[in-house]
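Dear U.,

For the methods section draft, I wanted the exact inputs and outputs in one place so we can describe them consistently. I've listed the two proteins in the order they'll appear in the manuscript figures. Please don't edit the token lines directly; just add comments below if something needs changing.

First protein:
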Amino acid sequence: MSPRILAGLGAACVAASLALFAWLHVTPPSAGLSWSRRTISQYALLDNGWAFDAATLLLAAGSAAVLAALVRARLLRAGSGAAVALALWVAGLVGVVWFEKHNWAVGPSMSGDIHRVASLVAFLSLPAAALLAAAPWLRDRRWRGPARAVTLGGVVSLLCFTPLLWALVTQPVTGVAWWRAIPLGGVERVLGLAEVVTVLLLAWWAARARADHRAPATVA
């Protein structure tokens, strides 16, 4: 299958995922949750939680298709740091669905702990993948434009993650629980949107490429 078709399929899955997430925000009972305080994965515990699972798995499937497109287009090599990081993003998304978050109505759980780790892996792996994928192409005459756009997506995603890091680091000093120190739900939604846009930028890049060129020897 050509990189363009794979990238198109990936982008379509990501777009469908965004539509489902948007639907969750306006449909009861999930519409009643606070966008600023409640994380998106809280939706999985509600009656329409199937939509959260479907949206997250669509995002994972779309991202996997984009990864395949990038490899087919020879923009990155299978087994490279960028490919591994993008695969970890996909695995993290699947883990978020497979292991539900803590249901505080009944207390903490092992599933909730794994869910939190999977979320962290996903959130950090995607910007790392974007930066590693773009780095070898930043001086390439043909692809420096897309590479810079992908780099920007990765940098913005990392910047969106910094409030979470700040909350964790300052908790011992302030005594305020990290999930209360910031509007966690709002931060997560902005971060998630930035990362989804970055995936779409990777898809756009792969769709423009053809498999008749070689990745630089320095590709990560």
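Second protein (the one for the lower panel):
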Amino acid sequence: MDRKTADKRLMRIIQQIAAGNYSDEIMELTGPEYPANVQELAEAVGMMMVKIEAREFHLEQLLERIKENSLKTVTSIAVALGRRDEYTEGHGERVGIYSERLARRMGLSSQDVEDVRVAGILHDIGKIGFSDRMFCGEDTAMSEAMMLEIRSHPQWGHDILSGLDYLGPVLDYVYAHHERLDGRGYPRGLEADQIPMGARILAVADCFDAMTTDRPYQRGRPAEEALSILGSMAESGALDPDAVEAFMEDIEEHGMAD
């Protein structure tokens, strides 16, 4: 190959590499059919490309470890928050289990199933902003201020997690898990298709676990009674009917979470 043609090809490949389009094409220019200066420059660029790829791979691994560690930290906080109140201990973990099972039964992708599971664990992290009176464990009449705290916790949860942008749709699920299909939920009054499916699934799992565990204001209900109430909530426009139906089937097949 003549020098002019070889130089043009070399420059084209270098421009591609500079743009982040790596390939083994640069190594073809190290063959004996190319001029010596082209061979030498191609070898140097090829070595540089390999080193860049290695560094990028290392950075990607480092970023994944950072994401994993930060998620573990936030999850630990959510679990610890549940232990602040004997009545809600284990609630997040169980909602995560129910949500994962329901998402899988409804045919969501593996990534969507994982996002719903994580959202289930983290859905109440906004309660970290609750005052101590909300965790006293006593049958205290709800004041207007206490109701405002309760209705604010999805917003607080979204705000707490918003810095972890890699969570993606998990943020939306946490934000919308108390919305209702009829638009009477909170904190934004979303309705119907405005509510993401992950949040609809989470809402069903959350309601069921809340009803079947002891709370200061009520004893845990049997599964059959809780499922019947879920059915009524679906009929009234509070919950997604398809999600409720699938959840009933899942509980019948797999039982309650430990």
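Candidate sentences for the figure legend, describing the second protein: The domain at 84-254 is CATH 1.10.3210.10 (Hypothetical protein af1432). The chain has a mean pLDDT of 85.

Thanks,
Y.
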